[in-house]
Write a structure and sequence with these properties.
It contains twelve helices and five strands. The chain is of the alpha/beta class. The two termini are about 25 Å apart.
Length: about 280
């Protein structure tokens, strides 16, 4: 079956998300020019903020589908800007993708703790950029289409879901239960089909597949941590680390299968909650 990854990246984005608005937070002129070109090639509308204060002002003044956030910016860095965006109901659910030169685990954890959804390592390769955009622009669209049900009624039911730390999820969404429910719906829609890159029958046969799987697990870890699925986040992070170690195929295959089952079970539990399966507006 054809997927976004079977097409050239910019064509897949243009086909599904042409006209979507991206706020690029970048103070380096070269990086700004390169990233803007890649985004516009994919049919996206791009506004540029050159410091953290501009990011906050622009995100609050206009509606964006996604923010690409350079972590190191003048006046207010990307981490601080992300934290402020998460405290405002207008931007609490907005996908924020960190852009950083570091692949260090502590830096990744800092981005997640600040409320960012995912991370891109500079220099960003076009296929990697387009893959992340496809994932989170789709998530943003689902979020905008959801009809929000009564937030307070859902919280007791959520407490019954194994592996879901409701308090942690609410804290990530600045205590706004309505926005938190939207995030949970978004998660369930995004991972209803599991993680496509996990194919235990061919794992290890293609280095590109391993790289894509590592990126997908990285994204699942961030999304899981955001909604309070702490155990899933830890599993995904551990699998990503395992992928970096050679000669562990025998260990990797059952671990991936177990993770896929855990993710599917968690999504099914979310879909069983009445308020989370509320009707959606037509596209």
């Amino acid at each position: 079956m054809a997927t976004d990854f079977d097409e050239p990246g910019e064509q897949a984005i243009r086909k599904r998300h042409e006209g979507s608005r991206v706020l690029l937070a970048e103070d380096n002129p070269v990086n700004e020019a390169v990233t803007t070109t890649l985004l516009e090639l994919a049919g996206l509308q791009v506004d540029v903020a050159h410091n953290g204060i501009e990011v906050i002002d622009m995100a609050n003044a206009s509606r964006y589908d996604l923010v690409l956030m350079d972590v190191q910016m003048p006046l207010r860095n990307g981490l601080d800007a992300a934290r402020l965006l998460r405290t405002d109901a207008r931007t609490a659910h907005l996908p924020i993708i960190a852009m950083t030169a570091s692949d260090d685990a502590d830096d990744h954890a800092a981005c997640l703790a600040a409320g960012m959804n995912d991370q891109l390592i500079k220099p960003v390769l076009p296929p990697v950029l387009y893959g992340v955009l496809a994932r989170w622009l789709a998530s943003s669209r689902v979020s905008a289409a959801v009809v929000i049900g009564p937030p307070a009624e859902a919280l007791p039911a959520l407490a019954s879901i194994e592996g879901l730390d409701v308090a942690s999820g609410l804290a990530f969404f600045a205590g706004d239960s309505g926005v938190y429910l939207r995030g949970l719906r978004q998660f369930a829609a995004l991972y209803a089909g599991g993680v496509e890159a996990i194919d235990t029958t061919t794992i290890g046969a293609d280095a590109r597949q391993i790289d894509r799987l590592r990126r997908d697990l990285h994204s699942v870890a961030g999304a899981s941590a955001a909604v309070g699925a702490i155990h899933l986040a830890q599993q995904a992070q551990a699998l990503g680390n395992l992928l970096q170690q050679p000669g562990l195929a025998d260990e990797l295959v059952p671990a991936l299968a177990q993770f896929s089952q855990a993710l599917s079970g968690f999504v099914a539990d979310l879909q069983d909650i009445d308020v989370l399966s509320a009707s959606r507006t037509p596209p």
